[in-house]
Design a protein that fits this description.
It is a single chain. With 166 residues, this protein is an alpha+beta fold. The chain folds into 2 domains: 76 residues, Beta-grasp domain (Ubiquitin-like (UB roll)), CATH 3.10.20.30; 81 residues, [2Fe-2S]-binding domain (DNA polymerase, domain 1, Orthogonal Bundle). 31% of the residues lie in helices and 15% in strands. The protein has a 5-stranded mixed sheet with strand order 2-1-5-3-4, with helices on one face.
Length: 166
């Protein structure tokens, strides 16, 4: 059995036909070709699959596509900055070494972006708390926290540069 599913993905309407058991990550990476979202554990433990649903970070491996029907989804591809360049968070991760192998980075950056939309000047503790569900095997997290703090300072100085916030 296939069922219709309508989503707003990175600002664009999409209409799909999905299996009831298809997860949100399946339709993002499959028919929609948005392979920036990564699948690590597949059971809600690593955060690699984090996307925004209605502006809130969710593990897209734990959300059925039909549960997201009618919702607004923002993936890492939707966080581009003005002119299609890197968003402030992406740029800060590049500059501060918040990215090494890169597998955790899309989910980490989406989660950090959501934090900065809700809490523009977070403390280090707030950053660590917001990213507690996003695991990184490479960086030791210090560079990631520094990256988010740099992005926060830049977004506070130029709020319009924050990109699409889903
Ligand atoms: S792949 Fe979804 S939380 Fe790990
Ligand atoms: S950069 Fe490799 S898992 Fe985070």
């Amino acid at each position: 059995m296939m069922v219709p599913c309508r989503l707003q993905v990175n600002g664009a309407p999409v209409e799909l036909v999905v299996r009831p058991a298809d997860r949100l990550i399946d339709v993002l990476r499959g028919p929609l070709g948005l392979t920036g979202t990564k699948e690590g554990c597949g059971n809600g433990e690593c955060g690699a699959c984090t996307v925004l649903l209605g502006g809130r970070p969710v593990n897209s491996c734990l959300v059925l596509a039909i549960e997201a029907d009618g919702g607004e989804v923002t993936t890492i591809e939707g966080l581009a900055g003005p002119g299609g360049g890197l968003s402030p968070v992406q740029q800060a991760f590049v500059e501060r070494g918040g990215i090494q192998c890169g597998f955790c980075s899309p989910g980490m950056i989406v989660a950090a972006h959501a934090l900065l939309c809700a809490t523009p000047a977070p403390s280090e503790a707030q950053i660590r708390e917001a990213l507690v569900g996003n695991l990184c095997r490479c960086t030791g997290y210090a560079q990631i926290v520094e990256s988010v703090m740099l992005a926060a300072r830049r977004m506070a100085a130029a709020p319009a540069a924050g990109g699409h916030d889903g």
